[in-house]
Specification:
13 helices, alpha/beta, 33% helix, 451 residues
Length: 451
């Protein structure tokens, strides 16, 4: 006992009075430990340390970019109504990852079936939040967004025309037509990313509860794109109930397909925000974006760039393969729940998903990725603690609703005028209602007494 006490005392005195112990890592071996207090999901820390950080040595990154020269993304949120708030944030979360990867709105087709930010129930007019409103100061996903198709323009026909590059008849002469403006160029060197979020079922995906996109429609469109040489590789992701059934009939080559749920399974919402009063994002899309953001937080000291090209984000995407990003990570921590499983296939692809970097679909092509003055710094950015200034976000425009929100006085005046108008149009409506009510009560009273 005395010996143990002496050892404890001597150890304590040594730690107090001895010089500070400094651990020095060899260049290129283990990156410096970053502050993990800002992680969105603490369980991501060990995963990032195991599968991302070791690849930040130039020689240790096994992922090689593909041979594409351009990128195009088609993002669809097909649901209407306020209670489908989360479907819009799903699409916008993916949209901002693409913008941070350097993709421009010219190569992103964004289809939102409902103008949720301007819904009268939205207490933060013109804004939409995927992680919570936080009194209106949360991450506003509508900031800097360019919507190509909205409202009744979001149809199955419009979606297929975008993929096939077929504007409506007569649109060729119309320079201002939104269909024509939203058709980016595609060729055999283009990587195409197609993302669907909304409501669906076994082999179908709903568009505004009015029509359905069937799995054979998707398969036919991809086959026609292959015959027309409109893609190099396709990444197809569906975040909906029974999502993976949308890939059942795809037979075109080099199409990577991922679904957030299997046949007979649901895709669940993540969490509800008390200010919004709705679920603000779905679990699958949230995990994908949160992991990339956490990886950037752990590998860069620079502040997170919101909606413009970000070296730190692209560096993570270059070191994160698609299998880990879309299949392994969403399921390994149980974030999707016990009754949802991710489906995927790379059956007809020349590369397996674990060999394809996320940057092949979420960032501009390597030849256009870095400005000349920064290209040489990116590989050693974290090892040498060099921090590049992120692009300014001060000029990112905020989303404006088409009509200004009415004041409280205007709303009360509107209700008063409509009530007065209703009374003038139907002066006897109240008398009729009272007469019918009294008659019904009398009928019940006498019936009970007679019985």
């Amino acid at each position: 006992m005395i010996l143990r006490f002496s050892l404890c005392v001597s150890t304590t005195l040594y730690l107090i009075f001895s010089p500070t112990i400094t651990v020095v890592y060899a260049q290129g071996s283990t990156p410096k430990r970053k502050d993990t207090n800002r992680l969105l999901n603490k369980r991501h820390e060990s995963t990032i340390r195991n599968i991302i950080l070791p690849k930040f040595s130039v020689k240790n990154n096994p992922l090689k970019p593909g041979n594409h020269t351009s990128n195009v993304a088609v993002l669809v949120s097909s649901s209407r109504y306020w209670f489908n708030y989360r479907h819009v944030t799903n699409a916008l979360s993916i949209y901002h990852l693409l913008k941070r990867g350097g993709m421009t709105d010219d190569n992103i087709v964004l289809m939102l079936a409902d103008d949720i930010p301007c819904n009268k129930r939205n207490v933060h007019r013109g804004k939409i939040f995927g992680r919570g409103a936080n009194g209106g100061t949360g991450e506003d996903l509508m900031q800097g967004v360019d919507v190509d198709f909205s409202g009744t323009d979001v149809t199955v026909d419009a979606f297929l025309r975008v993929l096939l590059g077929r504007p409506l008849q007569g649109d060729e002469e119309s320079s201002g037509n939104r269909y024509k403006r939203s058709l980016p160029a595609m060729d055999e060197n283009t990587n195409v990313f197609v993302y669907l979020t909304g409501h669906g079922g076994d082999n179908f995906f709903k568009f505004q509860d009015g029509e359905e996109l069937m799995s054979h429609d998707v398969a036919s469109a991809f086959s026609q794109m292959h015959q027309s040489k409109r893609y190099n590789e396709i990444l197809f992701i569906a975040d909906t109930c029974q999502a993976f059934t949308m890939a059942d009939e795809i037979s075109a080559p080099n199409v990577y397909s991922v679904g957030s749920s299997l046949k007979g399974q649901n895709s669940y919402a993540s969490h509800t925000d008390s200010e919004i009063g709705q679920s603000v994002i779905d679990r699958y899309s949230k995990v994908v974006k949160d992991f990339v953001d956490d990886a950037v937080s752990m590998t860069s000291e620079a502040p997170l760039v919101f909606s413009s090209f970000d070296n730190a984000t692209v560096a993570v995407m270059e070191r994160l393969n698609m299998y880990d990003a879309f299949v392994r990570i969403p399921t390994m921590h149980g974030d999707l729940g016990s009754s949802s499983q991710v489906g995927y296939t790379d059956r007809f692809c020349s590369r397996s998903m674990n060999k394809v970097p996320l940057s092949d679909f979420f960032a501009v092509s390597p030849s256009n990725r870095y400005p000349p003055q920064t290209k040489g710094l990116v590989a050693s950015l974290w090892m040498n603690d060099v921090v590049l200034e992120p692009p300014s976000t001060n000029n990112i425009p905020s989303y404006e609703c088409s009509a200004p929100e009415a004041s409280v006085q205007e709303k009360l005046q509107y209700l008063s005028e409509n009530t007065r108008k209703s009374q003038l149009e139907n002066p006897l409506s109240d008398i009729k209602f009272l007469t019918m009510s009294m008659g019904f009560i009398a009928f019940v009273f006498y019936s009970v007494n007679a019985w």
